[in-house]
Amino acid sequence: MISAIRIHLQGIKTSLAVRMAYRADFFISAFIMLISEFFGPLLTYLIYSNETSLPGWSMYEVLLIQGIFLLSKGVSFPFFFGMVWNTLERVHDGTFDLLLIKPRSILQMVIVTGFDSEDLGKLIGGVALSGFALYHLPRPDLYEWFNFVALFVVSLVVMFGFALILAGLSIVWIATTGI
């Protein structure tokens, strides 16, 4: 277990080192990723500022839902959703065999080598948007926080399962980036 965590940390460190070779490109990419994810909350703000609303929902409740979804994407996309693109590229290039000869699990190696650091902007945006919405809503009690953590873990499991299915399909259907 400890060695698996070390491998993941080393993969994250290596990916960040590669992306930080051109720091301006890294920060601009993360910023553009963050800005593109804020079009939904901006649209929500525009709807609510024009005297229109979703019946039964306050603006901050809708922003909280969007923030939690962005937070879920912010955890799953950089840490394990990169296995989809990683598998797709390696199968297309014919280098997937290199992962098969490693003395580790193939799934672990695909996840480690598929870390995408520019998607960390989604994580930062999700934390910021959720925090902003929570600041304007009544404070949740301990039971509600426990429910949130449990459901958030379930959302990550669903995202992982979806990524795993797409990665498996990319082995069968080669060069299908349209998926």
From TrEMBL:
Q: Which domain of life is it from?
A: Bacteria
Q: Does the keyword Transport apply?
A: no
The parts of the chain that form a coiled coil are: none
> InterPro entries in the record, alphabetically?
ABC-2_transporter-like (IPR010390)
Keywords in UniProt for this one?
Answer: Membrane, Transmembrane, Transmembrane helix
Q: Where are the transmembrane segments?
A: 26-48, 60-81, 120-137, 149-175
Q: Which Pfam families match?
A: ABC2_membrane_6
The keyword Kinase belongs to this UniProt entry's keyword annotation: no
Which named protein is this? Uncharacterized protein
